Amino acid sequence: MSITAIVLIVLAVVVIGITFFFISVYNELSKERILTHEGQSGVGASLQQRNDLIPNLVETVKGYAGHENKTLVDVIKWRNQSAGATTMEDQNAASTGLKQSLINLLSVAENYPELKANTQFQELMNQLGTIEEKINDSRRYYNGTVREYNQSLAVFPKNIIGGMFGFQPAVFFAEDAGAKVAPQVKFN
To answer: Fold for domain 3-164?
Structure first.
């Protein structure tokens, strides 16, 4: 075997090795991106459950505290924004507003002992608590997949390969800005 043939074989092995390396990194990044989409879908499904429950909750409260109209309108407004959110940034904003309006709604319910004793209201509140736990679990999973994906995009050589193929960092599902501060309850 001539030296030229050996050089060509070594060169072919190196090119094949580099090609497989690029394919491997691309596939890893693709899988991580898919996991972030799966996590986002899980958060969306949990948020949709909450959005579906809220009109029933509002109607139940309306029957007892109909004159607390602004609070009820705020809950529906934020619920609609949450349902219509198309990006994680929009969902973060809607989630923050919805949480505050639900706190206000619950504070209104505190003023109506007969409402708090209503079995339908109690059942809806139990469902809401269960859904909120699912939302938190979904957020944790989503943020974990985003962390792994974004870390992969930040390290060499994946950052170069990711940049070549248009991989973009994902957005975390943000903690509510006021999560570390006690919520403000507003009576209207």
So the answer is: de novo design (two linked rop proteins) (1.20.1440)
What is the C-alpha separation between 1 and 6, in angstroms, rounded? 7
Domain spans in the chain, listed from the N-terminal domain onward: 3-164
Residue 186 backbone phi and psi in degrees, to 5: -115, 125
Cis peptide bond N-terminal to 169, omega within 30: no
Kindly report, residue by residue over 102-127, the tens digit of the pLDDT.
888 888 888 888 887 888 888 888 99
In the three-class reduction of DSSP (H, G, I as helix; E, B as strand; rest coil), residue 169 is classed as: coil
| Residues with pLDDT less than 70, the chain | 66-67, 175-188
The answer, as to whether pTM is greater than 0.70, is yes
- Whether the CB-CB separation of 98 and 75 falls below 8 Å is answered with yes
Q: Are 30 and 164 in contact (CB under 8 A)?
A: no
pLDDT in tens, 54-63: 888 888 888 7
Task: Say how far apart CA 36 and CA 144 lie, in whole Å.
Answer: 8
Instruction: Return the SS3 of 42.
Output: helix
Rounded Cα gap, residues 135 and 48, in angstroms: 10
| Dihedral angle sign, alpha carbons of residues 92, 93, 98, 100 | positive
